[in-house]
Design brief:
With about 450 residues, this protein is an alpha/beta fold. It has three domains: about 1-120, Rossmann fold; about 130-250 and about 350-385 and about 435-440, Dihydrodipicolinate Reductase, domain 2; about 265-340, no CATH class. It has helices spanning about 15-20, 35-40, 60-65, 80-90, 100-105, 110-115, 130-140, 175-180, 225-230, 250-260, 275-285, 290-300, 305-315, 330-340, 385-400, 415-430, and strands at about 1-5, 25-30, 50, 70-75, 95, 115-120, 145-160, 185-190, 195, 205-210, 215-220, 240-245, 350-360, 365-375, 410, 435-440. The strands form three sheets. A seven-stranded parallel beta sheet has the order 3-2-1-4-5-6-15, with helices on both faces. The protein has a seven-stranded mixed beta sheet with strand order 10-11-12-7-13-14-16, with helices on one face. A two-stranded antiparallel sheet has the order 8-9. Helix 1 runs parallel beside helix 15 (about 385-400). The longest helix is centred in the C-terminal third of the chain and has 18 residues, at about 385-400.
Length: about 450
């Protein structure tokens, strides 16, 4: 019986736990700070164990890692390195759905020497995006062609029938993570020209894109796309862009929210027990919440009845509502308030949209436009699309690792056929599949 340790019991964890419990040769231990969450995932399954764990208790964490064959870290990324070093110490494999940090990359040699695989970025974005993109890029190369333009855009959104608030958004994963992503710098290649965007200007750089069956969505840049020139072997590409999908109006509103200062995560103990209006006044350096709407509208040179102001008012930023934020930071007040107003209701579905656009050229002069589109919906009263698409790739890869079917060692992402071919094949059996449209240009 293979022993798998899952660290964390958050919003995306249930599918990975249930998938692995369904395997006849795997025992699953779920360790969480809130053991009731782990209990709810295991549901008394004979091949499951739930354990209370504060990840700061390194002695207990080490004992758990030593007792299992592989660790899956679904903890905040700041804890992955601690887990990775303990995996090295006890010769255990590691799986995460998070971006590879430079510190994680530095463990590559040690992991190889010990015959270990540390597989990162095996979720949705990053994860399914890597695997599906590399599948097509390699198919083009096998036909003697080259990819001269590559765009990859992903977003987690409400299904159309659940899109009923002014922001066009609901939370299927960490609200803090969603808000913090609005501070990231961006770097991409467009028609041979490198573009560098500072975090403060991220939402200024947005445009509209038509998506089959969904209509018009907004797109804004996602982190450093230039890394993928080497990771994907896109040396001939004049455009390399990775972006995020949102519904119309998100970017302009978040641009104003960021411009006010709401994305600051400095702890401010003086904000405890303040109303949202009082916190908003503090954010824009006003001593009083009097005439707050007028002050905000003037700051951004917009009218009080503009769509942006209506969204801010709907959020309650000018109200006497109190929000609990621990730690008391502007960012946490905002994230917690958004989560209060933008949860999924019991029967509502979320939606994942991931689209790759390729332009391929071949030696005979032919050109092809390839659009690869994944739309996946959550299951009412069941798993969200976000949970399924983030955790099932990690679950499948974990099974393949413990069964010895992936023999790689070192620190990797799933951009090689040994990983992506079997994972994509199994995801398709779960109806997580792409529709590819190829047209001659």
């Amino acid at each position: 019986m293979h022993k798998v340790l899952i660290l964390g019991a958050g919003l995306v964890t249930r599918p990975i736990v249930r998938y692995l419990l369904d395997q006849p040769n795997i025992h699953v231990t779920v360790a969480s700070r809130t053991v009731s969450k782990a209990d709810a995932l295991i549901q008394g399954h004979p091949q499951g164990t739930s354990i209370e764990l504060n990840v700061k208790d390194e002695e207990k964490l080490e004992k758990l890692i030593a007792e299992n064959d592989i660790a899956i870290s679904l903890l905040p990324y700041t804890h992955h390195l601690t887990v990775a070093n303990l995996c090295l110490k006890h010769k255990k494999h590691l799986v995460t759905t998070s971006y590879v940090s430079s510190a994680m990359k530095a463990l590559d040699k040690d992991a190889k020497e010990k015959g270990l695989l540390f597989l990162n970025e095996i979720g949705l974005d990053p994860g399914i995006d890597h695997m599906s993109a590399m599948k097509i890029i390699n198919e083009v190369k096998e036909k003697g062609g080259k990819v001269v333009s590559f765009e990859s855009i992903c977003g987690g959104l409400p299904a159309p029938e659940a899109n009923d608030n002014p922001f066009g958004y609901k939370f299927s994963w960490s609200p803090r993570g969603v808000v913090m992503a609005g501070r990231n710098n961006a770097h991409f290649l467009k028609n041979g020209e490198e573009k560098k965007i500072e975090g403060k200007d991220l939402f200024k750089n947005n445009w509209k894109k038509e998506v089959e069956s969904l209509g018009t969505l907004e797109v804004y840049p996602n982190r450093d796309s230039m890394l993928y020139q080497e990771l994907y072997g896109l040396w001939d590409a004049k455009t390399i862009f990775r972006g995020t999908f949102r519904n119309l109006g998100w970017c302009n509103t978040l641009l104003k929210i960021a411009g006010m200062g709401w994305l600051d995560d400095t702890e401010r103990s003086e904000l405890k027990d303040k109303t949202l209006a009082e916190v908003t006044a503090s954010v824009i350096n006003e001593t009083s919440p009097d005439n707050l709407k007028e002050k905000v509208a003037k700051k951004f040179d917009i009218t009080i009845d503009s769509d942006v102001m209506k969204r801010l008012e709907w959020l309650g930023l000018f109200s006497n509502v109190k929000v609990v934020a621990d730690p008391p930071t502007y960012l946490d007040f905002l994230a917690n308030r958004m989560l209060e107003l933008m949860p999924y209701k019991e029967n509502e579905r979320d939606m994942i949209v991931l689209q790759h656009d390729f332009l391929a050229e071949y030696p005979n002069g032919n050109k092809e436009s390839i659009v690869s589109l994944l739309i996946d919906f959550g299951i009412p009263k069941g798993d969200s699309a976000m949970a399924r698409t983030v955790s099932l790739p990690a679950a499948i890869a974990t099974k393949l690792i413990v069964e010895g079917k992936i023999k790689l060692t070192g620190v990797h992402i799933p951009n090689m056929p040994e990983v992506y071919t079997p994972v994509i094949k199994e995801l398709e059996t779960m109806n997580i599949k792409f529709k590819d449209t190829v047209k001659k240009v």
